[in-house]
Amino acid sequence: MGTRCSVFIATSLDGFIARTDGSIDWLDRANATVQPGEDCGYAQFLHTIDALVMGRGTFEKVLTFPEWPYGAMPVYVLSHSIEQLPAGLPETVQLSRESPAEVVRRASASGHQHLYVDGGKVIQSFLAAGLITELTLTVIPVLLGSGLRLFGDLEADITLNVIASKVYPFGFVQNHYAVVTSRPHALDRQPN
Amino acid sequence: MGTRCSVFIATSLDGFIARTDGSIDWLDRANATVQPGEDCGYAQFLHTIDALVMGRGTFEKVLTFPEWPYGAMPVYVLSHSIEQLPAGLPETVQLSRESPAEVVRRASASGHQHLYVDGGKVIQSFLAAGLITELTLTVIPVLLGSGLRLFGDLEADITLNVIASKVYPFGFVQNHYAVVTSRPHALDRQPN
After folding, report:
1. Residues 6 or more apart from A137 whose CB is under 8 A from it?
2. Which domains does chain B have, with CATH numbers?
3. Fewer C-beta neighbours within 10 Å, C or N terminus of chain B?
4. Which of residues 133-172 of A touch B (CB under 8 A)?
C-alpha cells in the first residue's frame, strides 16, 4: 500500500475555495451559522493523518494565525519562491522544492502513511500527478460567480467513488470521495 | 407566489455539464452503470412542471433525438439566431426573443406555475437575473478538468438552502437546493 494523500476542503456550490482576492468572507459567514463545537469532521480527519503538505499560499495564510496550529505534525511547505522558513516554527516544518511525486515518495520513506494535502494550487498539482487518493469536500450553499477554483486542468478524467455523504442541518453537504482511476505511473514521472 | 423556475441537471464533480466540444460521453458512461428504470427522480420532476424554457444549444440537441420528447408540454425556445422553428413540432413549442424576466412574466400570465429551465447558457442567464428558485444537481463522480461549466459569473452572491440530498448506490450525489437570496428586483430590470 502506498501513502494515501487526502484533501479536506470547503468550496462554494460553484467550486470556489476563495474569492479572486483570496478572501473567504462567504465561508466565515457560513461558519457563523454552525453551532459551537461542530467542526464537520475536521478534528477526526486530523487524527488520521501523519503529515501535511501545503503550498506557499496556505503557509503564508497560516502564518497570520495567532499561533502555529499544527503542533509537532510534520509539515512539508512546497515552494520555489520562499528562501527560508521564518524563525520560531517547530522543527517538524520543512521547506521543500520537490515535485509532488518526490515529496510523497520521501514522506512514504519516512513512514508517513497518510498525507493531508492543502491549498488550491498544491491540490491541483497533486490531482494532475495522479497522487490524490481521497477527497472530502464540504459544499457551502452559496454561489459566488467568480474566485479561485478548487479544481483545475487535467490531462485525463479522474473517476471517483463516493465513500460517504452527509448533510448538516445548517446546509453544508459533505461528500467523501475515493479516487478510482487516475493517471498511471504518476509516481514514475520526472519532476517538472 | 410567483412562478417557480427550476433547474434539474447533472454535472461532473468539477462543475461541467459537457466537455468543451459539447460531448457527454462521461455522462453516458456513468449512466450505463445505473440500473434500468432508475431515472434519479427525473420523471417525478417532469410531473411537477408546467412548461420548459431552453436555449438554442439544448433545442438543437433535442432535435437530433428520434422524436420530440416533451409531448404537448409548452416549450419556450429562447434564441436570437433561430429564424423560425422547423416544421413538425407540436404547436406548444414557441420561439421567443424575450429576456429571461420577460419569458417568466409571460409564462406566469399564461398560468404556468413551475418552469423547467434547461441548458447551460439559459440557466446562467436566469441565475444572473435572480429568477431561479430551485436547483436539483446530480453530481457524477468524475473530474473532467475542462469543459462547459454549469455556473457562470454573477453580480452578487446567491445563497441557497438544501432541501434534500441523496446518494445513489452507483455514486451519484443529488442535492436539491432552494435559492434564498438573489438579486432584488430582477423582474423589474429592463431586458438586455
Report:
1. A7, A9, A10, A11, A150, A174, A175, A177, B13
2. 14-186 (3.40.430.10)
3. N
4. 137, 139, 141-146, 150-162, 165, 167, 171
CA distance A68 to B184: 43
Grid cell, residue A156, equals 485525463
For the record, the C-alpha cell of A114 comes out as: 497518510
What are the chain A neighbours of B159 within 8 Å (beta carbons)?
Answer: 141-143
B160 within 8 A of A142, measured Cβ to Cβ: yes
Query: Across the interface, do B139 and A15 touch by the CB < 8 Å criterion?
Result: no
How many CA atoms lie within 13 Å of A187's alpha carbon, on the beta-carbon side?
Answer: 13
Within 8 A of A14 by CB-CB distance, chain B residues are 15, 150-151
Give the sign of the dihedral formed by CA A162, CA B160, CA B98, CA B153.
negative
How many Å apart are CA B121 and CA B54, to the nearest integer?
A: 9
Q: What is the pLDDT of residues A142-183, one digit of tens each?
A: 999 999 999 999 999 999 999 999 999 999 999 999 999 865
